Amino acid sequence: MKEDFENVELAKHKKKFKQLRESELMETQRLEANANRKNDENERRNLQVRTSGLIQEEAEKKLMSRMFAKSFLRVFKKENFQVLLDFGMVRSQFELNMGATLLPKLIG
């Protein structure tokens, strides 16, 4: 009789311990999942900030190069460009095509 009582009490204790352990495990998993979600969100936001910073930096570089080119070419006057054309340093796309396609066909 005493053994049966002890076995029943032991079974109750094991069941209660198992339920407690499972509930603690579920709570731990819930907290870990919450922490993982927060870390993922922080990483995503940091990546977004870095990406937008790089895009902004590229846009500033393009703007600066465009402004430099405009200020540099503003110095050239029409006569200077004509001198470059006369020396053959600058050719139009039409002249390049003429020299590459039409003239060899006429000569050959």
Task: Please report the distance between the alpha carbons of the first and last residues.
Answer: 120 Å
Report the portion of residues in β strands.
under 5%
Encode the helix/strand succession as letters. Answer: HHH
Largest sheet entry: none
What is the count of helical runs? 3
Rg over CA atoms: 40 Å
Q: Residue share in helices?
A: over 70%
Shape: rod-shaped
**The number of domains:** 2
Structural class: mainly alpha
Q: Average pLDDT value?
A: 85
| Weakly predicted, low-confidence segments | none
How many distinct beta strands?
A: 0
Describe this structure in words.
The protein has two domains: 1-74; 76-108, no CATH class. Helices cover 92% and strands 0% of the residues. The protein has helices at 2-75, 78-87, 93-107.
What's a concise summary of this model?
The chain has 108 residues and is mainly alpha-helical. The chain has three helices and no strands. The relative contact order is 0.03.
Describe the structure using short key phrases.
108 residues; mainly alpha; 2 domains; 0% strand; rod-shaped
SSE topology sketch:
Elements lengths: L1 H74 L2 H10 L5 H15 L1
